[in-house]
Amino acid sequence: MRIHDHYELDFGQEDVVLVHRTERNGAGGHPVYSDDTGIVLAEISDRGEVRMLASSGHQDLPVRVRARPVQPH
Q1: Cα atoms found within 13 Å of the Cα of residue 9, Cβ hemisphere only
Q2: How distant is the alpha carbon of residue 66 from its chain centre?
Q3: I need a labelling partner for 20 at 20 to 30 A (CA). Which of 35, 37, 55, 60 fits?
C-alpha cells in the first residue's frame, strides 16, 4: 500500500472520520493525519496500519481502527 493524502478512519458501528496528511511524522516515522478539528490524530503506515495519537490529556484512544484511502472532496 502506498501513502495517501486522505483517509477515512473507520472506528466501527458507522463511526467514520475523514483525515488529511499533515507535515508531521509520528514516532514510527510514518505520516501523521488529522481531522479538520485537530482532535483526531493518527499515524498511518504505508501498509495501512493505524496508531491513534493523543491530541490532549485524558483521551481514551481506540485500538482497532481501519484506514481506507479516499480522494478529497
Answers
A1: 26
A2: 9
A3: 60
